[in-house]
Structure formats: C-alpha cells, structure tokens
Design a protein that fits this description.
With 91 residues, the protein is an alpha+beta fold. It has a domain at 1-11 and 38-69. It is built from three helices and five strands. It has helices spanning 35-41, 48-69, 82-88, and strands spanning 2-3, 10-12, 18-24, 27-33, 78-80. A five-stranded mixed β-sheet has the order 1-2-3-4-5. A hairpin with a 2-residue loop joins strand 3 (18-24) and strand 4. The longest helix has 22 residues, at 48-69. It starts with a strand and ends with a helix.
Length: 91
C-alpha cells in the first residue's frame, strides 16, 4: 500500500519493512527500513505504515547519514536496521 509523503511514495512490504526513495544529489536512492527498526522508533505501535509516516523525517536523516558514510548495499540501496536506529548512526 503506497504512503504519500516527501519526494515519493513509500510502500510497506509483506515482511513489515517499508521501502521508500530518498534524494541523494541528482538521483534517488531506494531505502528500506526494517520492521524491527520501526518497532524501536515507536514500540507500542504495530502498524509499520503509521510508524513510518510519523517517523519519516528521522528515518530520512538516518538514511542520509548512511549514504554520506558510504554504507550502501551492493545493489545500491540503503537499509536501515534496528542497529542504525539504536545509535550506529545517531540522529
């Protein structure tokens, strides 16, 4: 189900993760935030779409930090996990 916000739609995956585009210079980077990472952001909420919508500014800041640090997956995407949210790339 698409979530309209920011520069593009975010889509919840079957595993509860959310995929969304983020701008990086002149192009877009595909980012994924895991269900576990979302659960850390708002522990008492079980709807990944709502957690993502509420936390999108923070999620985007964390994704940009990973991009700047060169922490990009082999396929060119950025993946935010629970470790990222807990402080590997603090906000």
């Amino acid at each position: 189900m698409p979530l309209d916000h920011g520069i593009g739609d975010a889509v919840q995956q079957r595993d509860g993760s959310v995929v969304f585009p983020i701008s990086a210079g002149a192009h877009l980077v595909r980012c994924t935030v895991t269900r576990e990472a979302l659960a850390i952001l708002i522990p008492d909420h079980d709807d990944p779409r709502k957690v993502f919508s509420h936390s999108r500014p923070k999620i985007e800041r964390l994704a940009r930090k990973k991009i700047r640090a060169g922490a990009i997956e082999a396929d060119g995407t950025v993946k935010l996990t629970a470790i990222d949210v807990l402080g590997l790339f603090p906000d």
